[in-house]
């Protein structure tokens, strides 16, 4: 049975009750040596890797060019936004995992695809550095197919509701316009990726 | 006189003392109708526009091709990260402003460049939807020059320490590698833009 997820209520969350995130007051010294205060939201879950999360850009490709080079994106209801959000497969890094291991694990759990190789692992990137210390890595992986695109089952935990979708990389911008028309929101990082892709194509023409 | 900015101390910030951000406990109903809890960090500054912030991608171009098509990025010490961060010009939307007006204002304040036209304004995008309701728009603007690139003074507030830098759009990835070597961190959205640009160039070859 499936219902539309929705926010039922929203209230202040005292620090003492919060499990996943917290607020920090940072005293810092500015370039003129003046003492100032900054407020920051932080995840409580960061492990010894020093990195909160990974996002995965999977390159799905056919060795016989049986389908256009594609990637896989996910749709997921996000309570802070109270809407369905379109994102790259992503997740928090577990204790004892590297960012690249987390990327391969999350990709398989959320989409069923097994990466054959890590093509590129970005440096640590910051999501919204005026407001939070949250950071992440973008890991690009190779998912080759001998011929046609394979379809595999996701390995979701109970309580995870994630829809995967394979999209041609060159059509991301177009696909996002469709999502926006039906009231979905696109993650800023993924949208910026598509904007960069689009701008390069226009520059080359 | 200029010193290296740095974090002096960091402590828990009770909700009652926080001015700029707060924590929320969201009760929501999942797709199976089950009641669940999610924790979210939120800015307290969101105005009637419903959008927290804008980032500006300025296209700096010469009508005589006197310089390669470029954009302007900023370097800024960010206390939550305790490092210098490389970002697009950006800022919060003031009350009574549209996102596009905020983009033009922030671009001029942070870089001195006056946009002549808004080329594109993205839908509302979400920065880190698993952790926060923070949202933003990416506004692309045209900054044409009759011939050579002009250089103008920033209009920073007291206490704002921002360095601007003009970069060829096709060299963003390369420039980011230099920044990383000297210990700077790149904003995830800007880095994803450059990754998308790079991937399109490789796909076209």
UniProtKB/TrEMBL annotation, chains A, B:
SUPFAM superfamilies: Nudix
Keyword DNA repair: no
GO molecular-function term, one example from the UniProt record: ADP-ribose diphosphatase activity
One BP annotation, GO: ribose phosphate metabolic process
Residue ranges of domain Nudix hydrolase in the record: 49-189
GO CC terms, sorted: nucleus
Top-level division of the source organism's lineage: Eukaryota
Keyword terms, alphabetized: Hydrolase
CDD domains in the cross-refs: NUDIX_ADPRase_Nudt5 (cd18888)
Residues making up the signal peptide according to the UniProt record: none
Keyword Hydrolase: yes
Pfam families: NUDIX
Family: Belongs to the Nudix hydrolase family.
Family matches, as PANTHER family: ADP-RIBOSE DIPHOSPHATASE, UDP/ADP-SUGAR PYROPHOSPHATASE
UniProt-recorded name of the protein: Nudix hydrolase domain-containing protein
Native source organism of the sequence: Antrodiella citrinella
Lineage of the species this protein comes from: Eukaryota, Fungi, Dikarya, Basidiomycota, Agaricomycotina
């Amino acid at each position: 049975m499936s219902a539309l997820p929705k926010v039922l209520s929203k209230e202040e969350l005292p620090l003492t009750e919060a499990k996943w995130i917290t607020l920090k007051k940072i005293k810092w010294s500015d370039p003129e040596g003046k003492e100032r205060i900054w407020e920051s939201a932080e995840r409580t879950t960061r492990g010894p890797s020093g990195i909160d999360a990974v996002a995965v850009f999977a390159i799905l490709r056919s060795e016989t060019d049986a389908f256009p080079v594609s990637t896989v994106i996910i749709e997921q209801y996000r309570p802070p936004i109270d809407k369905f959000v379109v994102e790259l497969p992503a997740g928090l890094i577990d204790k004892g995992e590297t960012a690249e291991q987390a990327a391969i694990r999350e990709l398989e759990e959320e989409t069923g695809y097994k990466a054959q190789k890590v093509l590129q692992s970005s440096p640590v990137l910051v999501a919204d550095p005026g407001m939070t210390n949250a950071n992440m890595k973008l890991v690009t992986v190779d998912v080759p197919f001998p011929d046609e695109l394979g379809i595999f089952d996701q390995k979701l935990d109970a309580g995870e509701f994630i829809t995967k979708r394979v999209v041609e990389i060159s059509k991301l911008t177009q696909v996002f316009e469709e999502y926006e028309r039906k009231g979905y929101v696109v993650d800023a990082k993924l949208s910026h990726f598509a904007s960069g892709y689009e701008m390069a194509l226009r520059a080359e023409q």
